[in-house]
Design a protein that fits this description.
Elements: H1 2-24, E1 27-29, E2 35-37, E3 50-60, E4 63-66, E5 70-73, E6 78-85, E7 90-94, E8 99-103, E9 108-114, E10 119-124, E11 136-141
Parallel strand pairs: 3-6, 5-11
Antiparallel strand pairs: 1-2, 3-4, 6-9, 7-8, 10-11
Length: 142
């Protein structure tokens, strides 16, 4: 008898929890304790035109490099960069836009962001010594 009661309580709690979670996605309570419909999250389209770029990250006897030295876009453009590391260990860092992506060997990595501020910004590899050896470029947002 005791086991049946425990199972019934667990089942009731599970059903109530499921109902609560399910309803919390579509209904909320305002400060007056009235139900208010909540909008479902949507996938936003890019803010402006999409500007696509590609670069290769590599190192050789002369230094460490990105093959692309400059990207030029307009404020509001979506920047889509495909970066491929062909030799060594590299990443792609762009501090002002909060970007730091590891670039695995021989794998294309897509980095996408909205250029929401104007200016000249340096992108670089943050591996020790790589920026100093020449592995950097410039993003110009007009």
């Amino acid at each position: 008898m005791g086991k049946i009661l425990v199972i019934a309580i667990i089942a009731a709690v599970a059903v109530a929890g499921y109902a609560l979670v399910r309803n919390s996605k579509t209904v909320a309570m305002d400060s007056g304790s009235q139900e208010v419909a909540m909008e479902e999250p949507t996938t936003e389209a890019p803010a402006g035109p999409v500007k696509e770029f590609t670069t290769t990250a590599y190192n050789d006897e002369a230094g460490a490099w990105f093959s692309l030295k400059e990207m030029r876009v307009k404020k509001g453009d979506t920047v889509r960069l495909t970066a491929t590391n062909t030799k060594g260990m590299h990443d792609f860092s762009l501090d002002e836009f909060g970007i730091k992506k590891n670039l695995l060997l021989n794998e294309a990595v897509t980095i996408e962001f909205v250029a929401d501020k104007t200016g000249e910004f340096i992108y670089y590899c943050s591996m020790p010594g790589h920026r100093a050896k020449g592995q950097w470029g410039k993003l110009i947002v007009e």
